Amino acid sequence: MQFKDYWNETHKKFSSGKIVYDNWLDDYKDVLNKCKTKVLDLGCGTGNDTLYLTEKGFGVIACDYSDVAIEKINKEFNNIETKIVDISKRLPFEDNSFDLIIADLSLHYFDENTTKNIMREIKRILTPNGYLIARVNSVEDINHGAGQGKKLEENFYYVEGYNKRFFTIQDAVKFFSIIGDTKVKEADMLRYSKPKKVFEILVQKKN
């Protein structure tokens, strides 16, 4: 199954339900309040963080690789700009476009070289001193495939039909520091009704 097909099928299973978000972004209110541009929700899925952000009064551009996810966003939200985007490719935005990018569980599906290129692209489209706030899989995330499946690279596996990367703190710093000054903290959440171990990443672009 192709990557897009996988995510279209996944989002079909959950697209009929009510959009519900957790409040993880509450910890970054100071950063959010500095944002003067629209917020880029990069890998928006069916709109959890988009809903949070719009309820807080932010303009949002919601992007995802899945047509099904974008269709749900367009049905659920008024006046939201959406784009179907393959984040493994050059991002379809001008340099220095966004004060803030949110990438919630969308950056841990790629090999090392692609992940590094994604970081360079995020840096390119962030404004000077702009921020990325992200969540990524932890190597402790055993309920969601850590250390399972076919090993492709260190902490990168083919699991249940698609590729998954799992980060150590050192990995997170290595990759995200391509963008700028990086802070990492461990966190817990629920994903598809299962407990999930993640790292929360805050990066400020360094020129």
Keywords:
single chain; 207 residues; alpha/beta; Rossmann fold; seven-stranded mixed β-sheet; three-stranded antiparallel β-sheet; 27% helix; globular
Structure, briefly:
This protein is of the alpha/beta class and 207 residues long. The chain has helices spanning 3-14, 29-32, 48-55, 67-76, 112-125, 169-176; strands spanning 39-42, 60-64, 81-84, 98-104, 126-137, 150-153, 156-159, 162-165, 180-191, 194-205. It has one domain (3-13, 22-205): Vaccinia Virus protein VP39 (Rossmann fold), CATH 3.40.50.150.
Description:
With 207 residues, the chain is α/β, with parallel strands linked by helices. Helices cover 27% and strands 33% of the residues. The strands form two sheets. A seven-stranded mixed beta sheet has the order 3-2-1-4-5-10-9. Strand 1, helix 3 (48-55) and strand 2 (60-64) form a beta-alpha-beta unit. The protein is globular, with a radius of gyration of 16 Å.
Task: Give the strand content.
Answer: 25-35%
The CATH superfamily is Vaccinia Virus protein VP39
CATH architecture label name: 3-Layer(aba) Sandwich
CATH topology: Rossmann fold
Count of strand segments? 10
Query: For the residues shown, what is the average pLDDT?
Result: 90
